[in-house]
Please model this.
Amino acid sequence: MGAGGRPNRDRTGSGPEPTGPTLTALTAALTAALTAGKADGSGADMGRKERTGSGWRAIGLWAACYHGGQRQLLQAGIDVNTRHRLGWTALMVAAISRNPSVVKVLLAANADPNLGDDFSSVYEMAKEKGLHSLEVLVTREDEFNNRLNVRASFRGCTALHYAVLADDCLSVRMLLDAGANPLQKNEMGHTPLDYAREGEVMNLLKASEAKFQEEQRRREIEERRRFPLEQRLKEHIIGQESAIATVGAAIRRKENGWYDEEHPLVFLFLGSSGIGKTELAKQTAKYLHKDVKKGFIRLDMSEFQERHEVAKFIGSPPGYVGHEEGGQLTKKLRQCPNAVVLFDEVDKAHPDVLTIMLQLFDEGRLTDGKGKTIDCKDAIFIMTSNVASDEIAQHALQLRQEAVEMSKKRIAENLEDVQVSDKITISKQFKEKVIRPILKAHFRRDEFLGRINEIVYFLPFCHSELIQLVNKELSFWAKKAKARHNITLLWDREVLDVLADGYNLHYGARSIKHEVERRVVNQLAAAYEQDLLPRGCTLRVAVEDSDKQLLKSKESSEMGEGQSKSKAPTLRLEIVDKDSKARKLDIQAPLSPENMAYFL
Model:
């Protein structure tokens, strides 16, 4: 292992030589047959056979990367991105073997230059695959390269990494021209430039990095223009348009360079439970960091309610237990200083934790228990809290009711006027007179609130949003039914209204999820257990006929005292036959009220 955890070029200390590895006799025979053009003879017959792990044809492809017989294999329709059973691809073999002619042919056949190697180290792969380490070592040396450090980790290395390790300028140039990413990092966090020697390859990579960054920036700007962040977030979050717009505007300022580089972005998400606060934070991290897990740090602040638990946050001081382990936040921020950090339920944290956040939010740096300072000015900090959630919910409902009354006074039939009640905004007076005193009383310091860039309000769902939530939840279970039992699940429009009535203001979308499970999924499970659902059948969820009139009368007029006490409409399952006729399922309740025994 070289300095900084980098894999050495070879075990002897000299640079890699353009010598191909020794092949097994069978692979060599296959390659010779293919090279000799015996595509229709014994070589082709042998190529059609399969073995455990990789097929003979795939082995022939890797072997051909050394001996020039790759054209016959490519003409036979071989997938050039096929992986060896230990993780590498043919393009990586050609790159490390310093064979630019093969690299050219593979790239012309649409080989992906940005695929990462799945091979880590000899001992890790032996453990992962359940093989003897000697077998892995011999395979790596015979079928890939025999001059690489056997103890180093190569996971995530691309063909460009290997071409740089081999110091093959021609292959490096071909890979870059084919779209290889010079900024792509391997598992150790190193780019190809980190392995380059002084000379032509290093100069080529430096120029390519600058060019690639500029092109990448231009592509990202164009992509953001065509597909704004707000639209991306709306694909995953129902409602909360005001919250999405606020977060989207702040992220846009940051992405386009219109922000203060000396201070991180800080948000405070306020609203009831189950209303989308955590999901918005997750989707923001996914947008900024794609699928990189280190780009999203989530800390449950209910774990930091005591004074002594502050040490878990930044690490214990010298001489205390856990000093070497570091803090939960500092350790993760060191790995990804520009991460999206979620402090979930921050109102439950001890005041000493909030004191630490003052420096974090103001200067964008944090000192851990070891005395090391972490610079995280490029990070985004999001706090969620249920403080003042009841006041926000009641104010939103009041605003919607006022909007409904105003819309009734206006005779309007177009869609915009009908949806006026769904588009409400929290007034500045409400924020200053109601919310700020509550926040100040809870957090007890103005300097903490003053460091928050945006306080984002999450409002209760309106009826149209509840319909979307119910439909989304039913679609989730329909996919499960199809995948697990090959059952097609359908539902009537009235079912959405019935299930939407199960919404609880205090529990948000979770109440809809639980309502669907209680009233629909419970019936599905009971019917399946009683063998009433043949595989491949079509099921429909419907409202009882006797209850449909009640549902319609409830929607058309204001309910009286007697109607408000009537039972909720019931749902039933029907099997739809091939002739589109529906047949109600007779599901026996496992424990009906008349069979229950009560003990006084």
Notes: Residues 196 and 328 are 35 Å apart (CA to CA). The longest helix spans residues 200-226. The chain is about 50% helix and 10% strand.
